[in-house]
## 1
Amino acid sequence: MRLATWNVEWFTALFDDDNRPIEDDTPSARYNVSKRAQLLGIGRVLAALDADAVLIVEAPDEGRRRSTVEALEGFADACGLRTRRATIGFASHTEQEIALLYDPDAMMVRHDPQGSASVPRFDGTMEVSLGNGAGSERAQFSKPPLELAVTPATGAPFRLIGVHAKSKAPHGARSAEQVHQITLENRRKQLAQCQWLRLRVEDHLRRGDRLVVLGDLNDGPGLDSFEGPFGRSGVEVVMGLDGDPALRLCDPHAIAALRHPLSGGHSTARFYHAGERRFFPALLDYVLVSPDLAAQGPRWRIWHPFDDPECWSTPDLRQALLDASDHFPVTLDFTP
């Protein structure tokens, strides 16, 4: 089975209020890329992934007039994709949803949010300790994680949690002081969300659930200087690297970044820095798996247009990846 996660930059801007793709040459949210070119790029990449299920981060909006499922299923049908069914969980407070596009012949999928007195459902709020003397934070998800019970056509059931954690970018800052303050506040919110997610992960692992946590965590080991005051990144928190090895999640790209922080390493996103007039890479997207799945020897792959040899040597796929989003897909091949 192949699972994928992909943050598709402002996918919602490519659909009208009738959930139909806007296939014209007007500008998309991608710099110097038309809506038509971005749509073609997304379709080309999804076809190349040939995944049994793809977590779409920044999926089309769900609202009074907009339907995430209708938009994604219509798009999949137009592109002839086998991942032709879509599902979402709790709607986002933003215009960016978390959705799963999947092949109904390969699996059955059910939205199955969890909650308890100590660890509430992700559509609520929770007071979370940040650790390392940083106090606590009242956590809330503007994009509640998508919790699914997945039953493969062949193989054992497993749990899937799709995530789009809080961005740490200092949007709206007008001075260096505001940049520092907003980034620090956003780091606290992002870390609180990751702590909450970690508690849910531990509940599943203690029950013996096979678990996949995937999506955009907006964080990576050693990614910025604001990690210092809290002692660890949000990714390390979700993985549980400072706890019981039997309760740790695994992603080799995150582990490599921790072991070799100065080596350049892997990246799943590419952003343009206007001040420096250059692109910079970031490792933000992950597919984290429970110890039992990790023990099977699954294969992870980042579909990076420059770092992945097959993507680089396939010009139309390379261009499609660049047209489609500022993030690149991550896939996991495993035996369910």
## 2
Amino acid sequence: MTPRMDAIGIVTKDLTASLAFYRRLGLDIPADADSAPHVEATLPNGMRLMWDTEDVIRSFDPGWTEPADDGQRLGLAFRCNGPAEVDAVYDELTGAGHEGRLKPWDAAWGQRYAMVLDPDGCEVSLYAAND
């Protein structure tokens, strides 16, 4: 038997804010999930993205402590359909009040690339091949 990666988990301070952020990126997350203790969204490729609040984690792991603010909890990357979509999604997210980490730019490796922070400070990359 060989283990295979099946899911990515996010530990969040504010579940509602985190789910709203990822809905803006096109994830299909039911509206009633905002009040659930654990949330999962299955991505088009079958991978799952899961959320738990810090309180839920502490309920089964009393020794859990919040990660230091000087490090990243997680980094995710979302492929866009083209350079213009990278710019549009970045503008939409930062316009909604999310912090831009890197404004869209043309990377030396041939991609339009940008980074925003989710409500918990996790870096979320937006990218597309340059035409």
## 3
Amino acid sequence: MTLQVPPRSLGILNLERGVPVGAAPPAPAVGSMLNPTTFDFVTISETVAGAWVENVVRGDPALEPAFVAAAQRLVQRGAVAISSTCGFSVRHQLAVATSVNVPVIMSSLLLLPTLLRQLPARAMIAVLTYDSTCCTEHLLGIENRAERARIVIGGIEGGKFWHDELKRPAPPLDVAAIEADVAACITRLRSAHPQIGTILFECAAFPVVAPAIRRITKLPVFSITDLCRLAMASTT
């Protein structure tokens, strides 16, 4: 008898989307965390009970046990690394990493120290976020003042995608709206800070427009999907 070895899987912590029980969720956009064609490895997901866009983005500490429980379920199902569909869940990075025995990469913001060091000292990084009013200093994980001064933050709050994500149920991703909002935000940031040399997407929905933004800006663009590939490449 041949034993079936489960595939190496990336476990993804997903937020509530408000899809009615029994209804099929919208098909994930090409390039998104939940689209099976985005990665060349298997992904599995668990919904974090009670975690909606609004309370994850603004930071609700009461969600931490639900994040931990969902991460532990993913490991029990065979996940060899854990990530999430919202960069603001970096608030729960320590708690989740402490609760499981696999690599945990809750947010692309974890890349910031590395990206700062790969650029010349005069170059800046633009962090593109779902909501810049909630992307506070402590989420960046950068304590050195000189390094912090090289990071500029821009958000798409108030745009179509921002409003769509607050709906219940959330509609399918409007990729064109995301691209328009992100491109406009980057244009504003580069006008004020021409030293920008790299773009980091905080929002886990933004990777769907990463190829377009690379073409428009001619700059490197990093996202949570890049960090996921790195983490999975390090596992056995």
